[in-house]
Amino acid sequence: MAPKSLPNSPHHDPEEGYILDLQEANGWLFKPRGLHIVWGNEDCYWRLPPEGEDGPVELLEVWWFEVRGSTKENLKRGKKYEISFLVSVNKDARCWNDLPIFIMAKVGMGGSCRWKRINLPIQDGDNKFEIPEGKFLIDVPETECDDSKLHFGLYEVWSASCKGGLQIHEARVQEVKENNENDTL
Length: 185
Hints:
Strand content: 35-45%
Largest sheet: 8 strands, antiparallel
Pfam families: PP2
InterPro entries: PP2-like (IPR025886)
Radius of gyration: 16 Å
């Protein structure tokens, strides 16, 4: 399915077939084409996997790093959800050893934003690893509300430094089972 970006938009908007419903985990798996990527339609900044393929999106070079996703369905009231990204840092990576990135999330467009600072471990090779280290959880209020969709993302927009070499393989949102709730931040 074609992206919903405006004609000539420099940004990549999420494509329908790349957000998978993980029914058994009460969550979603976002493949790279299922994420909103600022400057994602510009080949000089990002390399998207070909349509229908399952590879990572590769950051070539940007100053404004913003990759985000949203659930189409409301989250279950009173539950906790874990958010993570599977990434790798290639040999051409630059600036990540000096700059943190931030994972941020909120429930509903008007919700309070929760965030965590992440220092990427720079590794030799293209080894995949999950960020953030440890759990990043968000609570869904028990009160009824019209908008309890999850809005989340990775950001580094404050440094005015050129960044590159990060590959995003997927993002995952899943409900936390009650016996794991001791891991809350």
